[in-house]
Amino acid sequence: MLTAYSVWRLRTTSNKSASDAPKRIVLYEDMDGTVYDVDLPLTSNVDPAELRENLGLPSYIDLDYFPMKSAMVTIWASVNGPKLHELYPNAFEKKVNKKPIPSLLFGGAAVKIHCKSANAGGALARDIKDTDFIVPKKQGIDFYKLLLNMHKAFGTQYKSFATANDRRFSAWRHGERYRLTTINDITEEGLPKITVLDLFCDCIDLRHKVDVKDEFDKYKENLYTIGLEKLILSKTQFIMDFPKDRVQELKENKCEYRILPYSYYAKDMVVLGMEEKDVKDVCAIVLDHSIGKKNDEINGERLRKTLEKDKKLAMTATLNLQNLVEKPEIIERWMRKSEVATVVERVKELLKFLPDIDKKWDKPWWNTAVETPIIQ
């Protein structure tokens, strides 16, 4: 979360009138007084639509939506890392990397790449606050440095920087994760907004660990994402417990649907599953892709093989998917009846592939040492 120091302010250079003076905007002021700013108006030296086409990505991806526009530039830069120093010598003094960096999207941005229904005008379109990337650990530091220099080559719209907190976070993770601060939106007035960007390496380690190392070699095949199956797991891995005597708060916040059908847990607690944003994303994936073995289908056998190695993740993913089947009213507010029926039937089909778990846990079987979202 950004501190109060992230509040931007405009300032102009001296010796000129306010109307014609170049303007700079303070993006962030650190606790030690270090200021991160940028000139206005923000610039872009590339055509994201051209880059999208060059990458072979679907034309339905909404590039009017800034996070996706930025994602196209970032992905193109990472896979062209070996020649960026030749194309943009003023930005990169030497090779970014000897070979392309397979920067894979997960989260809402990855869903927008795979699913037309998650883009502008689609039934399951939603805002995303940032783009989530994962790269091989051995290339993590190179990708991190690339992000910090993007603005020099492609324009100030793509500026990222590392605050003191970002650097401390990265140092504590020893190459497992990196954190930086980046521009994630531009207002109608041309003013930038910023957010914190987490960069994962090798695996998504949140409530459960989802290893994606096998996906790096398939980055083009998977449209520069972690693939449909791992994307579903990254969404359905979310779980938390909640005091039973506070269930009324869930009702007041219209979150009662998140209570999962699990009766073996501690009697004074309920178990909660996915947030609305993740429910929407899972529905978009299932609505836009049938179950099967083709590259553009959800491979149930591949999901089963992954979950057979991790019974705890299997339990959480199964509960979250079962909740969609048992409570179709959750998604009826977004989709037509025919679309709801399609989602429910495909989730039922997918559940048949998942391993049966006979273990009955009465306490957390997930990682509790992660930030828990506030119910709101």
Description of the structure:
Helix content is 35%, strand content 16%. It has 376 residues and is of the alpha+beta class. The chain has two domains: 4-205, no CATH class; 228-351, no CATH class. The strands form four sheets. Strands 4-5-8-7-6 form a five-stranded mixed β-sheet, sandwiched between helices. Residues 1-8 have low confidence and may be disordered.
Keywords:
12 strands; globular; alpha+beta; disordered N terminus; 376 residues; single chain; five-stranded mixed sheet; three-stranded antiparallel sheet; 2 domains
Biggest sheet, in brief?
Answer: 5 strands, mixed
Shape: globular
Helix amount: 25-40%
Radius of gyration, in angstroms, nearest whole number: 22 Å
Side by side, the strands of the main sheet go 4-5-8-7-6
Please report the distance between the alpha carbons of the first and last residues: 16 Å
Uncertain runs are: 1-8
Strand runs, count: 12
Structural domain tally: 2
Order of helices and strands: EEEHHHEHEHEHEEEEHEHEHHHHH
Mean pLDDT: 92
How much β-strand is present in the residues? Answer: 15-25%
Instruction: Work out the helix count.
Output: 13
What class would the helix/strand composition place it in? alpha+beta
Layout of helices and strands, plus pairs?
Elements (H helix, E strand, L loop, with lengths): L8 E4 L10 E7 L5 E6 L7 H8 L10 H14 L4 H4 L16 E3 L1 H7 L17 E4 L4 H15 L5 E2 L2 H10 L3 E10 L5 E10 L1 E3 L3 E3 L16 H9 L3 E4 L3 H6 L16 E4 L3 H13 L11 H9 L2 H16 L2 H4 L4 H15 L25
Parallel strand pairs: 5-8
Antiparallel strand pairs: 1-2, 2-3, 4-5, 6-7, 7-8, 9-10, 11-12
Helix pairs in contact: 1-2, 2-5, 7-9, 11-13
